[in-house]
Amino acid sequence: MAVIVYFWIFPSSNSPFTLLWEDLPKKEQYMQEHPTEVNAEGSPQCFHCHSDKLLDTGLNHFTDYRRITTCTKCKSRLWREQL
Ligand SMILES: [Zn+2]
Predict the structure, then answer these.
(1) How many angstroms is it from 52 CA to the middle of ligand 1?
(2) Total tally of structural domains belonging to the chain
(3) Which of 19, 31, 42, 74 is 20 to 30 A from 52, comparing alpha carbons?
(4) What digits encode the pLDDT tens for the residues 2-33?
């Protein structure tokens, strides 16, 4: 319990990235939650600003198997994928 409270109070300390990553929906979930943001080609776009300029990055480093897709326009983290 103390650990949970610690992370809740200090969300930017120690290893917040893994927690943030697990909080993100998977791509399939994202597309189900935001069906109006999926274009004719079947590619989802940002549900905040409706931009289709998205960036796929690794969680901790470029080749990390845990991927995060971020909107390049409003910088929102949209979904996660695992390679
Ligand atoms: Zn956006």
Answers:
(1) 8
(2) 1
(3) 19
(4) 455 445 544 444 466 677 888 999 999 999 99
What domain range includes position 58?
A: 17-82
Residue 4 within any structural domain of the chain = no
Does 36 reside within a domain?
yes
Q: What is the pTM of this model?
A: 0.76
Distance CA(78)–CA(47), nearest Å, equals 8
Q: What amino acid occupies position 13?
A: S
CA of 6 to the centre of ligand 1 (A): 30
In this structure, what token pair is assigned to residue 80? 């996660």
Cα–Cα distance for residue pair 73/48, rounded to 1 Å: 10
Asked if residue 77 is part of any domain, the answer here is yes
